[in-house]
Design a protein that fits this description.
The complex is a heterotrimer. Chain B has 5 helices and 7 strands, in the order βααββββββααα. Chain B is of the alpha+beta class. The longest helix of chain B is centred in the middle third of the chain and has 38 residues. The termini of chain B are far apart. In chain B, about 25% of the residues are buried. Among the domains of chain C are: about 260 residues, Aldehyde oxidase/xanthine dehydrogenase, molybdopterin binding domain (Aldehyde Oxidoreductase, domain 4), CATH 3.30.365; about 150 residues, 2-Layer Sandwich (Aldehyde Oxidoreductase, domain 4). Chain C has 18 helices and 30 strands. Classes of the chains: A alpha+beta, B alpha+beta, C alpha+beta.
Chain lengths: ~160, ~210, ~775
């Protein structure tokens, strides 16, 4: 039996304390230990981006992190972005522009994009493509995702 | 995957061949080898720990020596199977007396891999195996040196093979050296010290 | 046929769940007491199993059970076939070798399951692999399709005495006579290589046996819930109603999720019944590459015979098709290749022969396109080389040979995957080509822009191709629609959904027919507890077949509502109409009864009813077409090639497409764009590479390159034509595979055109920068000849 570690971390604004094996992936911890299953696992080797979460505000692959590495840190998952009653402008824009089909990669895209749309109020198409280059989508061909990001930044600018 | 190359040993052919057929030396040339049992003169079995990129694990290995014409040539057949997959290599080795006290060893062979080794690690097999061969020869050279020295002085052979950790770090360094051969890396090698020196000068001037 | 809902870009109802992370996918399902399964898989592609010793694994804490083939006793057996053999085609030879659930005595592909480990967690289950000792005697592997048929080749299935899985010949007219009369005969060897569906979500399976209720519940991300349920019930000796298969949200299908006889489907229910605890299995990405089906992998020896002014006299195509180690899916993929070779063209003489071959790779079953891309690729490349030989423009030679609209419906004489003759139902193929040429500015580019760019030393090229897409094949699908007492309408159907928006598009059809707000229509797909008749989601048939059944069922309810409303409101039926969820009197909307109240009245809990009357406002309807509906179109693209790095940038991508009546334009465009990105992947990025030992060398995203956002064309334009299909009342055709089919040949033509001064010939797909480099060098070296 390997040694277990107690970790304390904040996830979506709430503090958690759990005892885990050192090899438990952060993705598995969030999904199965905390029942936050919005973060999805697509490849487990850090390329597809479906598992992207915000780690102290930075987008990171939760499949390449161990839960113990999140000890003392702040994690945000897609569940923190919005609710069906109150969607984040990105989520609204994805719906309006048909930027998701099966939806499996979508939480990863959203979390990769949150810091981007906050820091790029008027992104060019090129900048948007680069920003999402680390996320693979098999269904949409990316076009509508790019349109959705543009629309989201417009919505966010109008809200201000 | 084909492998081939040559190496010059600083010693007479008979000694080189004898050393080459010594199972202890063979085992030490490939650190990670946990044990090497002799079944008979031409058959050996053992286990070896291997790491190739993200794939690592323990392999049960068999080594067979065949088509032997000492001290000229022989064929080595190595088979390894383990959790990370399997590997099979057949290598033809020739030893040529250069006439100047050195021996030229030529090798050519074929390596086939399978399992996770192949499906996830195949891009790294080439460079890792080249590095392992290079390290192996370094070990052989040292072993040969000790052997010849001992022969000359009449003492017993003193030779410590490199540890698994030393070996692994050398392999890593080799691979970094290959990366550093690129042009961008070379530029960085100039820029970083320059920036450091400028930084120091700026600091000193500011005081 | 645009209406209030049909033809409108209605935003998808299911998005809210997916966007907020609340949608339940397979791996999100957790049941109390659940165990986890993992499969120990063979490294060798071809080997005899000498011994599997798992005693040490059983001693590992957390491991509950381990099973190998022997432990399943009589339960272990191959098959059955998922698709029947092509007996409809005269003279066809088919050697049935369905999947085995787990390897017994022999492994036939790298990744074949050797043992199942059941443990308290997936981590522990995979740890136990190290404890299992496997001894195998490796055999020579079979990888080359042509060598596999040579007399001294190792045999995958020894009892067959051959590696030939099937031989099917179809002909129209007489090709040899046509070729004898032709002015030009072009012959080429063309290769279409293997690619994966690589949906973002891997396959998985959760099974729960309720011992007290004697009921088995399965959650699976399957495209065929009803066949899966029937297969499980049959194997376990249960009543079909004792088994319920539920599909959660599915993260992409594209074909491989349709299998129903893989290790998880067959073994886990049996194990769950014995261990009496729920079991979950989820594949990892490497397993998906090794042991979930993939497709393409054909070698074609094709030829085309033409007159000197470019009229096609005949086409001949003899091709080898790799089925992998087994052939559970019959001839579906190569039959699609046969029906899509002559595609949209008028070809009076056609000879096509399939040699389907067993190899030591995993099984080939449909992946978006399902054999059609191969046929179209071969035909379009032959057209291009014919054009080159005859010094004709590629668009010109196509326009000359396309079937004219007055010839449709056109009986091709070639039998397809649905075992009936492929009939091109409706369409205007020349109009699609013309429109694509206009949209991309074809003449202007070829005559003015390209010569100018060439003079500047730039390598820009244009490609233009035509294609058809057979969709919406039988056998049938069904739906049941029920109006609830609260006026909300529920539709249930047997097909499942993997992102194509059935929850919205089917609701649109119902809302239109019943005149209810679209938010009041709920759609449940893929739950055999709700509906248990149907075949599944494949061949771009969901909206056409289930949608037509939905239209029929909704029409039945509409008629019943009007009949009952007329009685209740006391006016003749022609005075009644439906509006906003109410049954009203025309011109007097204040006189009404809500649909919900009417449904309640039609379901009395006391009293007597008239004989022959059925309760409520509910209808079941089925639809099966006489043959598939054929979508079609034309693709043009402009590429820029860097001759030093051989990197290709797609500057413009134009697709003109006709899928008949469009139910939801957002969804149709989404399907076209998604198909295009997979088509681009199959043109230039994705290839499953096997070595001579049938080891898969590209079993991760590090080596199997998926197209990313920066790989997409800079400018994409979609043009629509809408020729309704005569086969169903709404005139719908399928569209799911449209983007994937024409992209590779258009890409090849455009790249050849861009590198015209290199004179290279592209006869394979996928390409890559290094392959192009090699082809260019070959062409330069061969130029002296």
């Amino acid at each position: 039996m390997t040694k277990q570690y107690t970790i304390r971390l904040t996830v979506n604004g709430r503090e958690y304390q759990r005892t885990v094996e050192p090899r438990l992936l952060l993705a598995d911890f969030l999904r199965h230990e905390l029942n936050l299953s919005g973060t999805h696992v697509g490849c487990e080797h850090g390329i597809c981006g479906a598992c992207t979460i915000l780690f102290d505000g930075e987008p990171m692959r939760s499949c390449l992190l161990f839960a113990v590495q999140a000890d003392g840190h702040d994690i945000r998952t897609v569940e923190s972005l919005g609710t069906p009653e109150q969607l984040h402008p990105l989520q609204e824009a994805f719906n309006e522009k048909h930027a998701l089909q099966c939806g499996f990669c979508t939480p990863g895209f959203l979390m990769s994009l949150v810091p981007f749309v906050e820091s790029h109020p008027q992104p060019s198409e090129e900048e948007i493509r680069e920003a999402i280059d680390g996320n693979i989508c098999r269904c949409t061909g990316y076009e509508n995702i790019i349109a959705a990001v543009k629309l989201a930044t417009e919505k966010m600018a109008a809200d201000q | 995957m084909r492998i081939e190359g040559e190496h010059v040993f600083k010693g007479p052919r008979a000694d080189v061949y004898e050393m080459f057929r010594d199972p202890q030396v063979l085992a030490s040339a490939l650190p990670g080898t946990q044990e090497l049992k002799k079944i008979d003169d031409n058959h050996f079995e053992g286990t070896i720990n291997l790491r190739i990129g993200p794939v690592s694990g323990s392999f049960a290995g068999k080594l067979e020596v065949s088509d032997e014409v000492p001290p000229e040539k022989c064929t080595l057949t190595v088979e390894g199977r383990g959790a990370p997959g399997f590997a099979k290599g057949v290598g033809h080795v020739q030893f040529l007396d250069q006439g100047d006290g050195t021996t030229l060893m030529k090798y050519d062979g074929d390596v086939q891999i399978g399992g996770t080794l192949a499906s996830v690690g195949q891009r790294m097999i080439d460079s890792v195996s080249k590095s392992m061969i290079r390290q192996g020869f370094e070990t052989f050279d040292k072993a040969l040196e000790s052997r010849l020295a001992a022969k000359a002085s009449g003492n017993s052979v003193e030779f410590t093979p490199p540890t698994e950790a030393e070996f692994a770090s050398k392999v890593a360094k080799d691979m970094t050296k290959q990366i550093l051969k690129t042009q961008e890396a070379r530029i960085l090698m100039y820029l970083i010290p320059m920036v450091a020196i400028l930084g120091i000068i700026a600091y000193l001037l500011s005081r | 046929m645009a209406g209030k809902f049909i033809g409108q870009p209605i935003k998808r109802k299911e998005d809210v769940w997916l966007l907020t992370g609340k949608a339940e996918f397979l791996d999100d399902i957790n049941l109390p007491g659940m165990l986890h399964a993992a499969f120990l898989r063979s490294d060798y592609a071809h080997a005899r199993i000498l011994k599997i010793d798992y005693s040490a694994a059983l001693r590992r804490p957390g491991v509950v059970a381990v099973y190998t083939a022997q432990d399943f006793g009589d339960y272990w057996r191959p098959g059955p076939l998922q698709v029947p053999p092509p007996t409809a085609i005269k003279g066809s030879l088919f050697n049935a070798k369905p999947l085995v659930p787990i390897a017994k005595d022999k492994v036939r592909f790298s990744g074949e399951p050797l043992a199942v480990v059941i443990a308290e967690s997936r981590y522990i289950a995979e740890d136990a692999f190290d404890d299992i000792v496997v001894e195998m005697e490796p055999l020579e592997a079979v990888t080359d399709l042509e060598k596999a048929l040579e007399p001294n080749s190792p045999l995958i299935h020894e009892d067959l005495g051959t590696n030939l899985a099937a031989n099917v010949i179809q002909q129209v007219g007489n090709y040899d006579e046509a070729a004898a009369q032709a002015d030009v005969v072009i012959k080429r060897k063309i290769l279409v290589d293997r690619g994966a569906a690589a949906a973002m979500e891997n396959r998985g399976f959760v099974v729960d046996w309720n011992e007290r209720a004697q009921e088995l519940t399965v959650w699976a991300n399957t495209q065929a819930p009803i066949p899966l349920r029937n297969a499980i019930a049959a194997k376990l000796g249960l009543f079909e109603d004792q088994v319920r298969v539920i599909t959660p949200f599915i993260g992409g299908g594209f074909g491989p999720k349709i299998m129903t006889s893989q290790a998880d489907d067959v073994l886990l229910p049996w194990i769950a019944m014995r261990l009496k605890r729920p079991i979950k299995w989820v594949e990892d990405r490497r397993e998906n590459f090794l042991a979930t089906t993939s497709e393409r992998d054909q070698v074609h020896y094709a030829e085309i015979a033409l007159t000197k002014d470019g009229k096609i006299l005949g086409v001949k195509d003899v091709f080898y098709h790799d089925t992998g180690a087994y052939d559970p899916y019959g001839m579906t993929v190569p039959l699609n290749t046969q029906t899509h070779t002559i595609s949209a063209y008028d070809v009076p003489n056609f000879y096509t022969e399939i040699k389907m071959v067993f190899t030591n790779k995993f099984v080939v079953t449909p992946v978006r396109g399902a054999g059609r891309p191969e046929g179209v690729y071969v035909m379009e490349r032959l057209m291009d080389y014919a054009a080159r030989e005859l010094k004709m423009d590629p668009a010109e030679i196509r326009m000359k040979n396309l079937l004219r609209p007055e010839k449709l419906p056109y009986h091709t004489g070639v039998i397809g995957q649905d075992f009936v003759e492929n009939v091109l139902d409706s369409g205007d193929y020349p109009a699609a080509l013309r429109k694509a040429m206009d949209m991309i500015g074809y003449e202007k580019f070829v005559k003015e822009e390209q010569p100018r760019l060439r003079a500047e030393g730039k390598h820009k090229g244009i490609g233009i191709v035509c294609f058809t897409e057979g969709t919406a094949v039988g056998p049938y699908e069904g739906v049941r629609i029920t109006v609830g007492a609260n006026g909300k309408v529920n539709l249930v159907t047997g097909i499942s959904t993997q992102g194509q928006g059935h929850f919205t598009s089917l609701a649109q059809i119902v809302a239109e027919q019943l005149s209810v707000p679209i938010d009041d229509v709920n759609v449940i797909t893929g739950d055999t507890g709700h509906f248990h008749w149907g075949a599944g989601t494949f061949a771009s048939r969901g909206i056409t077949i289930a949608g037509t059944a939905a239209f029929s069922a909704a029409t039945k309810i509409r008629e019943k509502a009007i009949k009952l409303g007329s009685k209740y409101l006391g006016v003749p039926e022609d005075q009644i109409e439906l509006s906003e969820g109410k049954i009203i009197v025309k011109g007097d909307p204040a006189t009404f009864i809500t649909l919900g109240d009417m449904a309640m009245r039609a379901n009395p809990t006391r009293g007597v009813v008239e004989p022959g009357v059925e309760p409520g406002l509910e209808a079941v309807a089925y639809y099966g077409p006489p043959h598939g509906a054929t979508g079609y179109g034309s693709v043009a693209m402009i590429v820029d090639v860097d001759p030093e790095t051989m990197k290709v940038k797609v500057e413009r991508f134009v697709i003109v497409h006709d899928c008949g009546t469009i139910v939801n334009p957002l969804i149709v465009e989404g399907q076209i764009l998604g198909g295009m990105s997979m088509g681009l992947g199959q043109s230039f990025f994705e290839q499953m590479v096997y070595d001579e030992n049938a080891q898969l060398l590209s079993a991760s995203f590090m080596d199997y390159l998926m197209p990313q956002a920066t790989d997409m064309p800079e400018k994409i334009e979609i043009g629509h034509l809408a020729t309704p299909s005569p086969l169903n009342p709404l005139g719908i055709k399928g569209v799911g595979e449209a983007g994937a089919i024409p992209t590779p040949p258009a890409f090849a033509q455009a790249v050849e055109n861009a590198l015209a001064d290199f004179g290279l010939q592209i006869m394979e797909t996928p390409l890559s920068p290094s392959k192009l480099f090699g082809l260019a060098r070959q062409a330069r070296q061969g130029k002296g000849e």
